[in-house]
Amino acid sequence: MSNNTLSYIGWTFLPNLVTGWVQSIYYGVTIRAGNPKPQPGSPRYLKHRRRIHILVVLAYLLYTIVQVDYDIQRAGSFYQDLGLAPDADDRAIKSRFRKLAALHHPDKLASSDSDGTSEAFFVHLKLAQDTLIDPAKRFAYDRFGSDITKWRHCVTIRDYVIVGLQAAAPYYAVSGFFMIVIGVVGYLEWGRYWRYLTFAALLIFEFHTLTRPTSRVLAVINTALQNTTAHPPYLPFQLLVLARKATITVFIAISQLAPLLQDPQQTPLQNTEISQQQQLDRLTQVARGNEAEATRLLALDMAPFAGDEQALNEVRAKMKEWLVQNTIRADPEVRDAVGRVMGRRRDGAPPDAKAIS
Fold first, then answer.
1. What is the maximum alpha-carbon separation in the chain?
2. pLDDT tens digits for range 114-152
3. 117-133 vs 135-144: helix axis angle to the nearest 10?
4. Which residues contact 131 (CB under 8 A, 6 or more apart)?
5. CB-based contacts of 71: which residues, under 8 Å, 6+ apart?
6. pTM of the prediction?
7. Pick from 250, 246, 248, 255: which is nearest to 66 by CA?
């Protein structure tokens, strides 16, 4: 299992686990022996836990990004293997290869290369040189990495770019579909707008980087790294790998940070008001729908009497009488009230009316 997979799995339980450990250590250091510690569930305890949890999530986010960068640098590149800068010209590439070939040629190391390691390394150096001195292959390698050595029938830059875009398309299709699904089911509601915006920005950035000769963003990042750190410059494909994995990690971190950053005293009230308003809106819609359906059914029942005003008046009178007799008077409270009135008159009281107290 890769380090990245372990890192993503770690997001499911490590922040909560580490938060508990850190909170215990914090209380052990800051609270004197004999003094009571905040009880779990108390406002003070929850406030401390929320702040520590935020710090733990931010620290783990930084760790995962640094881990991804470390894996990228450890994997290396053709330029690092040849000991060249990314802007080296063909003359520098050939000169450097000749020097390394003199040191690592299999014929010179035949006696000590029993496992074929030296021969494999020489073949790798030869592949690196052949790739970097070919303009089309070098353009493709800088943007898609060593996978381009396996792409057959690619000759021009256009060929490599088309194949590379086809290889990248499934990643964005699956990721976009997954984001839509989790949005529909209501999962990871916090920061949904920013996730969509970041995902769109990543897509545009990768398309621009893959199809353009130069990238201003990459130039700015590499310049900043050279001026402030000893970090080697990124190649386009390395920066894209970092951006993809960092984006996923940031999505997960946002989903965990957003609930923690809300005011715990205001959130329940706000959620209750929103829920009540949504219920009222739904009830209003149902009432309007029932009213429209009742009006339609009444119009259908009255259709045979259309144009006959006398018949319509008689029907309305009968309907009014029926409503009074079967709906209003049949109500237990109405019957009870009528019984009280009739009882006061001492005659004609309904049999089931309550007696006068």
1. 129
2. 556 778 888 899 999 999 999 999 999 999 999 999 998
3. 110
4. 78, 137, 138, 141, 148, 149
5. 3, 4
6. 0.65
7. 246
